[in-house]
Protein backbone atom coordinates (compact mmCIF):
# COMPACT_ATOMS: atom_id res chain seq x y z
CA UNK A 1 0.00 0.00 0.00
CA UNK A 2 1.27 3.43 -0.92
CA UNK A 3 1.83 5.91 1.91
CA UNK A 4 -0.69 8.44 0.60
CA UNK A 5 -3.35 5.70 0.44
CA UNK A 6 -3.30 5.27 4.22
CA UNK A 7 -6.16 6.71 6.34
CA UNK A 8 -5.84 10.46 6.70
CA UNK A 9 -5.56 10.39 10.50
CA UNK A 10 -2.66 7.93 10.27
CA UNK A 11 -0.94 10.06 7.62
CA UNK A 12 -1.34 13.13 9.87
CA UNK A 13 0.11 11.22 12.83
CA UNK A 14 3.17 10.19 10.80
CA UNK A 15 3.68 13.70 9.37
CA UNK A 16 3.44 15.14 12.88
CA UNK A 17 6.64 13.32 13.84
CA UNK A 18 8.70 15.20 11.24
CA UNK A 19 10.63 18.40 11.82
CA UNK A 20 9.20 21.54 10.22
CA UNK A 21 11.52 21.57 7.19
CA UNK A 22 10.76 17.93 6.38
CA UNK A 23 7.03 18.45 6.93
CA UNK A 24 7.02 21.37 4.51
CA UNK A 25 8.72 19.24 1.86
CA UNK A 26 6.41 16.26 2.47
CA UNK A 27 3.27 18.39 2.22
CA UNK A 28 4.09 19.24 -1.43
CA UNK A 29 4.80 15.66 -2.54
CA UNK A 30 1.21 14.99 -3.63
CA UNK A 31 -2.26 16.52 -3.53
CA UNK A 32 -3.27 13.92 -0.96
CA UNK A 33 -0.49 14.89 1.45
CA UNK A 34 -1.13 18.58 0.83
CA UNK A 35 -4.82 18.20 1.72
CA UNK A 36 -3.94 16.31 4.91
CA UNK A 37 -1.33 18.89 5.93
CA UNK A 38 -3.72 21.78 5.23
CA UNK A 39 -6.66 20.27 7.13
CA UNK A 40 -7.18 22.28 10.37
CA UNK A 41 -8.85 19.31 12.07
CA UNK A 42 -5.89 16.99 11.39
CA UNK A 43 -3.19 19.67 11.80
CA UNK A 44 0.07 17.66 11.71
CA UNK A 45 1.92 20.95 12.34
CA UNK A 46 0.85 21.10 15.98
CA UNK A 47 3.49 18.75 17.39
CA UNK A 48 6.64 20.10 15.62
CA UNK A 49 5.58 23.69 16.36
CA UNK A 50 4.97 22.81 20.02
CA UNK A 51 8.40 21.11 20.19
CA UNK A 52 10.02 24.30 18.85
CA UNK A 53 8.23 26.50 21.36
CA UNK A 54 8.93 24.13 24.25
CA UNK A 55 12.66 23.81 23.67
CA UNK A 56 13.23 27.41 22.58
CA UNK A 57 15.45 26.22 19.73
CA UNK A 58 13.49 27.57 16.77
CA UNK A 59 14.01 26.01 13.38
CA UNK A 60 14.71 28.38 10.51
CA UNK A 61 11.48 27.21 8.84
CA UNK A 62 9.44 28.62 11.74
CA UNK A 63 10.38 32.20 10.86
CA UNK A 64 8.47 32.33 7.56
CA UNK A 65 5.85 29.66 8.17
CA UNK A 66 3.08 32.21 7.69
CA UNK A 67 3.77 32.55 3.94
CA UNK A 68 2.82 28.90 3.37
CA UNK A 69 -0.90 28.42 2.78
CA UNK A 70 -0.61 24.74 3.67
CA UNK A 71 -0.17 25.70 7.36
CA UNK A 72 -3.54 26.24 9.11
CA UNK A 73 -3.85 29.74 10.61
CA UNK A 74 -4.68 28.37 14.07
CA UNK A 75 -1.05 27.39 14.58
CA UNK A 76 -0.07 31.04 14.61
CA UNK A 77 -2.27 31.66 17.63
CA UNK A 78 -0.07 29.19 19.54
CA UNK A 79 3.13 30.75 18.17
CA UNK A 80 2.17 34.36 18.91
CA UNK A 81 0.91 33.39 22.38
CA UNK A 82 4.15 31.68 23.38
CA UNK A 83 7.22 32.54 21.27
CA UNK A 84 10.01 34.84 22.43
CA UNK A 85 9.30 38.57 21.94
CA UNK A 86 12.52 39.08 19.96
CA UNK A 87 11.53 36.29 17.56
CA UNK A 88 8.09 37.80 16.92
CA UNK A 89 9.39 41.35 16.54
CA UNK A 90 12.63 40.91 14.61
CA UNK A 91 12.68 37.49 12.94
CA UNK A 92 9.26 36.17 12.01
CA UNK A 93 7.01 37.04 9.10
CA UNK A 94 3.68 37.83 10.73
CA UNK A 95 0.53 36.12 9.45
CA UNK A 96 -2.63 37.79 8.22
CA UNK A 97 -5.06 37.04 11.05
CA UNK A 98 -8.59 38.20 11.72
CA UNK A 99 -9.21 40.75 14.47
CA UNK A 100 -10.77 38.07 16.70
CA UNK A 101 -7.62 35.94 16.33
CA UNK A 102 -5.34 38.83 17.31
CA UNK A 103 -7.60 39.42 20.30
CA UNK A 104 -7.26 35.77 21.33
CA UNK A 105 -3.45 36.02 21.04
CA UNK A 106 -3.51 39.13 23.23
CA UNK A 107 -5.72 37.59 25.90
CA UNK A 108 -3.72 34.36 26.02
CA UNK A 109 -0.36 36.11 26.28
CA UNK A 110 -0.82 39.14 28.51
CA UNK A 111 -2.28 39.89 31.93
CA UNK A 112 -5.83 41.32 31.88
CA UNK A 113 -4.63 44.66 33.27
CA UNK A 114 -2.61 45.19 30.08
CA UNK A 115 -5.84 45.88 28.21
CA UNK A 116 -5.41 49.50 29.32
CA UNK A 117 -2.59 49.87 26.80
CA UNK A 118 -4.92 49.07 23.91
CA UNK A 119 -7.04 52.24 24.15
CA UNK A 120 -8.63 52.75 20.69
CA UNK A 121 -6.13 50.63 18.76
CA UNK A 122 -6.93 47.46 16.85
CA UNK A 123 -6.14 44.15 18.52
CA UNK A 124 -3.21 43.60 16.16
CA UNK A 125 -1.74 46.98 17.04
CA UNK A 126 -2.36 46.38 20.74
CA UNK A 127 -0.62 43.01 20.57
CA UNK A 128 2.43 44.35 18.72
CA UNK A 129 2.72 47.36 21.04
CA UNK A 130 2.53 45.09 24.09
CA UNK A 131 5.09 42.60 22.79
CA UNK A 132 7.41 45.53 22.02
CA UNK A 133 6.80 46.81 25.54
CA UNK A 134 7.82 43.44 27.02
CA UNK A 135 11.03 43.38 25.00
CA UNK A 136 11.84 47.03 25.81
CA UNK A 137 11.10 46.75 29.55
CA UNK A 138 13.12 43.55 29.88
CA UNK A 139 16.23 44.90 28.12
CA UNK A 140 16.37 48.42 29.56
CA UNK A 141 15.68 50.21 32.84
CA UNK A 142 13.12 52.46 31.14
CA UNK A 143 9.78 52.72 32.95
CA UNK A 144 8.26 55.69 31.13
CA UNK A 145 5.13 53.71 30.21
CA UNK A 146 4.50 52.68 33.84
CA UNK A 147 5.88 55.11 36.41
CA UNK A 148 4.17 53.26 39.28
CA UNK A 149 4.18 49.50 39.75
CA UNK A 150 1.14 48.02 41.48
CA UNK A 151 1.04 44.92 43.67
CA UNK A 152 -1.46 43.11 45.91
CA UNK A 153 -1.13 42.35 49.63
CA UNK A 154 -3.37 39.71 51.26
CA UNK A 155 -3.84 40.58 54.93
CA UNK A 156 -4.38 38.04 57.69
CA UNK A 157 -7.71 39.65 58.65
CA UNK A 158 -9.19 38.63 55.29
CA UNK A 159 -8.88 41.98 53.52
CA UNK A 160 -6.53 42.86 50.66
CA UNK A 161 -4.79 46.04 49.51
CA UNK A 162 -3.75 47.14 46.03
CA UNK A 163 -0.62 49.22 46.60
CA UNK A 164 1.98 50.80 44.34
CA UNK A 165 5.60 51.89 44.38
CA UNK A 166 7.81 53.96 42.12
CA UNK A 167 8.94 51.76 39.22
CA UNK A 168 12.46 53.20 39.25
CA UNK A 169 13.15 52.04 42.80
CA UNK A 170 10.67 49.16 43.04
CA UNK A 171 12.10 46.35 45.18
CA UNK A 172 9.57 43.76 46.44
CA UNK A 173 12.11 42.26 48.86
CA UNK A 174 12.56 45.61 50.63
CA UNK A 175 8.80 46.25 50.62
CA UNK A 176 8.06 42.85 52.10
CA UNK A 177 10.71 43.32 54.81
CA UNK A 178 8.75 46.41 55.87
CA UNK A 179 5.54 44.38 55.95
CA UNK A 180 7.24 41.78 58.15
CA UNK A 181 8.45 44.47 60.53
CA UNK A 182 4.94 45.91 60.80
CA UNK A 183 3.61 42.44 61.71
CA UNK A 184 6.44 41.70 64.20
CA UNK A 185 7.61 38.83 62.00
CA UNK A 186 11.12 40.06 61.16
CA UNK A 187 12.61 36.97 62.84
CA UNK A 188 10.98 34.68 60.24
CA UNK A 189 12.55 33.94 56.87
CA UNK A 190 10.92 35.29 53.72
CA UNK A 191 9.52 32.53 51.52
CA UNK A 192 9.16 33.32 47.80
CA UNK A 193 7.07 31.10 45.54
CA UNK A 194 6.40 31.14 41.79
CA UNK A 195 2.61 30.89 41.67
CA UNK A 196 2.15 30.62 37.91
CA UNK A 197 4.34 31.17 34.88
CA UNK A 198 2.93 32.68 31.66
CA UNK A 199 4.62 33.69 28.42
CA UNK A 200 6.50 36.79 29.59
CA UNK A 201 5.68 37.09 33.29
CA UNK A 202 5.99 35.11 36.49
CA UNK A 203 3.55 35.73 39.32
CA UNK A 204 5.50 35.65 42.59
CA UNK A 205 4.26 35.45 46.18
CA UNK A 206 6.27 36.62 49.21
CA UNK A 207 5.22 35.29 52.60
CA UNK A 208 6.36 33.92 55.96
CA UNK A 209 5.84 30.47 57.46
CA UNK A 210 5.80 30.11 61.22
CA UNK A 211 4.26 28.34 64.19
CA UNK A 212 1.45 30.58 65.43
CA UNK A 213 0.52 30.77 69.09
CA UNK A 214 -3.15 31.09 68.12
CA UNK A 215 -5.28 31.05 64.99
CA UNK A 216 -5.52 34.87 64.87
CA UNK A 217 -1.96 34.99 63.50
CA UNK A 218 -2.77 32.68 60.56
CA UNK A 219 -3.35 34.15 57.09
CA UNK A 220 -5.81 31.62 55.68
CA UNK A 221 -6.19 33.54 52.40
CA UNK A 222 -2.45 33.15 51.75
CA UNK A 223 -2.89 29.38 51.95
CA UNK A 224 -5.99 29.45 49.74
CA UNK A 225 -4.16 31.54 47.13
CA UNK A 226 -1.16 29.21 46.89
CA UNK A 227 -3.04 25.93 47.39
CA UNK A 228 -6.62 26.10 46.05
CA UNK A 229 -8.93 24.19 48.39
CA UNK A 230 -9.67 20.73 47.07
CA UNK A 231 -6.68 20.69 44.67
CA UNK A 232 -3.99 18.27 45.86
CA UNK A 233 -0.72 16.82 44.63
CA UNK A 234 -1.52 13.19 45.43
CA UNK A 235 -5.32 13.43 45.49
CA UNK A 236 -5.34 13.43 49.29
CA UNK A 237 -5.87 16.28 51.74
CA UNK A 238 -2.54 17.39 53.25
CA UNK A 239 -3.99 18.39 56.66
CA UNK A 240 -5.49 15.90 59.04
CA UNK A 241 -8.89 16.50 60.59
CA UNK A 242 -8.24 18.50 63.78
CA UNK A 243 -10.74 16.34 65.67
CA UNK A 244 -8.45 13.34 65.20
CA UNK A 245 -5.03 14.83 66.03
CA UNK A 246 -3.32 17.14 68.47
CA UNK A 247 0.02 18.79 67.75
CA UNK A 248 2.44 20.47 70.14
CA UNK A 249 4.25 23.39 68.55
CA UNK A 250 7.15 25.59 69.62
CA UNK A 251 7.17 29.10 68.18
CA UNK A 252 10.92 29.74 68.25
CA UNK A 253 11.89 32.08 71.09
CA UNK A 254 8.34 32.11 72.42
CA UNK A 255 7.18 29.69 75.15
CA UNK A 256 6.06 26.24 74.09
CA UNK A 257 2.38 26.29 73.28
CA UNK A 258 -0.28 23.97 71.97
CA UNK A 259 -1.85 24.93 68.61
CA UNK A 260 -4.43 22.73 66.94
CA UNK A 261 -5.50 23.61 63.40
CA UNK A 262 -9.01 25.01 63.97
CA UNK A 263 -11.90 23.19 62.33
CA UNK A 264 -12.78 26.27 60.27
CA UNK A 265 -9.25 26.38 58.78
CA UNK A 266 -9.32 22.65 58.03
CA UNK A 267 -12.65 23.17 56.27
CA UNK A 268 -11.39 26.21 54.29
CA UNK A 269 -8.22 24.40 53.18
CA UNK A 270 -10.06 21.35 51.88
CA UNK A 271 -13.54 22.46 50.80
CA UNK A 272 -13.62 24.18 47.40
CA UNK A 273 -16.17 26.97 47.05
CA UNK A 274 -16.04 26.88 43.25
CA UNK A 275 -15.58 24.50 40.33
CA UNK A 276 -12.09 24.80 38.88
CA UNK A 277 -11.13 24.81 35.23
CA UNK A 278 -7.73 25.11 33.58
CA UNK A 279 -6.68 28.72 33.11
CA UNK A 280 -6.83 29.78 29.46
CA UNK A 281 -6.48 33.58 29.58
CA UNK A 282 -3.70 34.22 30.19
CA UNK A 283 -2.29 30.88 29.11
CA UNK A 284 0.18 29.20 31.51
CA UNK A 285 3.60 28.05 30.35
CA UNK A 286 4.15 24.28 29.92
CA UNK A 287 5.58 23.95 33.46
CA UNK A 288 2.18 25.12 34.79
CA UNK A 289 -0.02 23.85 31.96
CA UNK A 290 -2.60 22.32 34.36
CA UNK A 291 -2.93 25.44 36.54
CA UNK A 292 -4.73 25.84 38.93
CA UNK A 293 -4.46 22.06 39.20
CA UNK A 294 -1.10 20.52 40.05
CA UNK A 295 1.25 20.08 37.07
CA UNK A 296 3.68 17.11 37.38
CA UNK A 297 7.26 17.47 36.22
CA UNK A 298 8.90 19.51 38.96
CA UNK A 299 7.99 23.00 37.74
CA UNK A 300 4.93 23.50 39.96
CA UNK A 301 6.29 24.36 43.42
CA UNK A 302 3.16 25.70 45.09
CA UNK A 303 2.92 22.62 47.33
CA UNK A 304 6.60 22.38 48.30
CA UNK A 305 5.95 23.61 51.88
CA UNK A 306 3.05 21.31 52.70
CA UNK A 307 5.15 18.51 54.22
CA UNK A 308 6.82 21.05 56.50
CA UNK A 309 3.46 22.58 57.36
CA UNK A 310 1.94 19.16 58.06
CA UNK A 311 4.81 17.74 60.12
CA UNK A 312 5.91 20.85 62.04
CA UNK A 313 2.66 22.75 62.33
CA UNK A 314 3.74 25.71 60.16
CA UNK A 315 1.16 28.12 58.74
CA UNK A 316 1.31 31.23 56.58
CA UNK A 317 1.48 34.19 58.94
CA UNK A 318 1.24 37.95 58.48
CA UNK A 319 0.86 39.40 54.99
CA UNK A 320 1.30 37.73 51.61
CA UNK A 321 2.61 40.00 48.84
CA UNK A 322 1.83 39.19 45.19
CA UNK A 323 3.90 40.73 42.36
CA UNK A 324 4.50 40.24 38.63
CA UNK A 325 8.06 39.89 37.36
CA UNK A 326 9.20 39.87 33.74
CA UNK A 327 11.06 36.69 32.97
CA UNK A 328 14.85 36.54 32.95
CA UNK A 329 17.38 35.93 30.22
CA UNK A 330 16.57 32.25 29.99
CA UNK A 331 13.27 33.33 28.42
CA UNK A 332 14.01 36.79 27.00
CA UNK A 333 17.09 37.76 25.03
CA UNK A 334 19.93 39.89 26.45
CA UNK A 335 18.46 40.50 29.87
CA UNK A 336 20.66 41.38 32.83
CA UNK A 337 19.58 38.77 35.40
CA UNK A 338 21.01 40.83 38.27
CA UNK A 339 18.43 43.53 37.57
CA UNK A 340 14.93 42.02 37.83
CA UNK A 341 12.17 43.89 36.01
CA UNK A 342 8.66 44.08 37.41
CA UNK A 343 5.27 45.08 36.02
CA UNK A 344 2.00 45.88 37.73
CA UNK A 345 -0.23 43.22 39.25
CA UNK A 346 -3.79 44.43 39.86
CA UNK A 347 -7.20 43.23 41.01
CA UNK A 348 -8.05 42.15 37.44
CA UNK A 349 -4.97 39.96 37.35
CA UNK A 350 -5.70 38.47 40.76
CA UNK A 351 -9.23 37.42 39.73
CA UNK A 352 -7.87 35.95 36.47
CA UNK A 353 -5.31 33.66 38.13
CA UNK A 354 -7.24 32.90 41.35
CA UNK A 355 -10.98 33.46 40.80
CA UNK A 356 -11.77 31.38 43.90
CA UNK A 357 -10.48 34.27 46.06
CA UNK A 358 -13.04 36.75 44.72
CA UNK A 359 -15.71 35.57 47.15
CA UNK A 360 -13.28 35.02 50.02
CA UNK A 361 -11.54 38.39 50.39
CA UNK A 362 -13.65 40.38 52.84
CA UNK A 363 -12.58 43.90 51.78
CA UNK A 364 -10.75 45.28 48.73
CA UNK A 365 -8.77 48.42 49.50
CA UNK A 366 -7.08 50.66 46.92
CA UNK A 367 -4.08 52.17 48.64
CA UNK A 368 -2.74 51.77 52.16
CA UNK A 369 -4.85 51.53 55.29
CA UNK A 370 -7.77 49.50 56.53
CA UNK A 371 -10.33 50.91 54.10
CA UNK A 372 -12.54 52.69 56.63
TrEMBL record:
InterPro entries: F-box-like_dom_sf, F-box_dom. It comes from the Eukaryota. Residues 1-48 form the F-box domain. Pfam families: F-box-like (PF12937). This is F-box domain-containing protein.
Amino acid sequence: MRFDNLPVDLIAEILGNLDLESLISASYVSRRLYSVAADPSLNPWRRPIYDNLLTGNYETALKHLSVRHVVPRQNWIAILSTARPSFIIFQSTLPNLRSSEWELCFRRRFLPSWHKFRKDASWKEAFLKSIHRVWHRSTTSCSVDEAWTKYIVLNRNGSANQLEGSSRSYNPFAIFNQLKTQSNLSHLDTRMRVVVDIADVQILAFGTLGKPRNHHAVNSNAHLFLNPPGVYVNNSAPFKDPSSTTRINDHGVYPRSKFITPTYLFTEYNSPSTTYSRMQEPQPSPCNRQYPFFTPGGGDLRWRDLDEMEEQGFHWMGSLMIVAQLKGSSHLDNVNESRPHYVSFTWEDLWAISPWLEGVITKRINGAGLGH
